[in-house]
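User:
I study polymers; will you set down one protein's sequence and backbone structure tokens?

Assistant:
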Amino acid sequence: MQGIILAAGMGKRLKNITKNKTKCMVEVNGMSLIERMLKILDRKDLSRIIIVTGYQEETLKEYIASLTIHTPIIFVENPIYDKTNNIYSLSLTATFLEEEDTLLLESDLIFDETVIDLILCDPRENLALVDRFESWMDGTCMLLDENDCIVDMVAKKNLHFVNADQYYKTVNIYKFSRHFSKYTYVPFLKAYAMAMGNNEYYESVIRLIAMLDTKELQARRLNGQRWYEIDDIQDLDIAESLFTDNTEEQYKKITARYGGFWRYPKLVDYCYLVNPYFPTEHMLEEIRANSDRLIMQYPSGARVIRLLAGKLFGISDKKIIVGNGAAELIREMMQETNGKIGFVTPTFEEYINCCKQEQRVIMDTRKMDFSYSGQDIQDYFEQKHIQMLVLINPDNPSGNYIDSREIYELIHWCKKKKICLILDESFSDFSDEAESCIADSYLELYDEFYVIKSISKSYGVPGCRLGILAGKNSEKLDQIQRKLPIWNINSYAEFFLQIIEKYKEDYRLSLDRLRKSREIFRKELEKIPYMKVYPSQANYVMCELSDGVKSRKLASFLLENNILIKVLNEKLNNQKEMIRLAVRTDEENMHLIELLEKFGGEYIE
């Protein structure tokens, strides 16, 4: 068995990164693609490795010569790499193909060694390595039958994304027997190049062969092995987070992205906090049905958006404004005072980060085991001379909840003290009480009482970036509105507000399901010996780890099993090992419980 690597391309989409080197010399976490690939192949007892060069040929050859590779390497030059495609590069290796069984790879791949082991250990002689099509993938796809025979190969320009779940993407790693290459593939390759020219792709030849009744070439499906194709700077960035030296480093790189986790399709997100039971499939169908118009048309301006938001919460549009996520409104609201601001910590840090250090007056609930009441807040800030008080209820990350009676009393206390009160109730819909202060019965109590709410969390639509700010003081709301762009809300977010009224009952039912799931989840977590589970009225639970369990070690273990959790050590800074777990569906939660039990069995004596 020999290896053939196609490495003649220019890698134009990587722009300046490949200005003076080939694409396969690009590094992922300190190691180039070609070095990683050659080191893996060097352990597979290949007779030789043929590398087709072109762009920056001498640079690549010198670089490879500097590596410690024991397998003999033969270079084949494609002198017209800038005028041809990979069909020509592969045709230059025709003689080699006819001499031995071949493992064929493209040089812009990064993969785990198990990927190569999978195809080499398969007894079938002629295989195309494939994986389930995902949104990040680009290029030729296949349709397979139940016997792994290739039914069709679909060029990327002919892909129908409604059928995406039926497609398999070629990994661009193939295994050809000498007999297949000599009597089938090479003859077809030469004939196709002669008929269609050299600016084509060798996959086109595979497509022709796949249509033959002989069914000589079959597919080998991956089942979770990691690989990535590096075409542009985004691919490189994602590969950096996938292929790290250790899982702790991978955890840091993934969480530092602050979202965009659809790029990791197998990842189950227990870090970010959204309603797993809403929107319903029916609502998503309606959004999909209108997607063409929404993406091609401008959204309405602020007046219409405020009208829709007011209708949703049953208040006047004069009492509400809508932001591109709650974060946009938090920033504007926190700039309304230069005085001292009271915070109950630990909490959502966006508020604290929006004011100066000297403005912050902190009520630290770590000393109270993260449990506090409305009266505790009044007692603490009674003599602190604050001008503004920020309260998140339920709190994040503790899940501590102050009921509506205490909130009512806190509003009156702030009014008496002339303190501006900002209440963030982004998670309040998940509470058993489910009482919202975005109502005239609360807003009319005090001119300087404001409610901020992230629609993303309770309604399960973080991609829409919707947040609202409500209050009686319409003059201040108008003042903040004028600081925002006229089109700060996109068409998808507007459409969500437009149709949500039809799905209010579905939303209510989703909250009921979430509360039941939370209770089941908490009870199961409490059975785990090394966990202390804090009471929560939100869609997450905070846990303290004991028996020497380190939160980062646990997070790394779970990430190895495609689950992402929130490590709270730095946020809480209380010399304890703390994590936060979102509440997801019952099935997902039970899978997590099983992994937590497994971790306890493997890592705790």
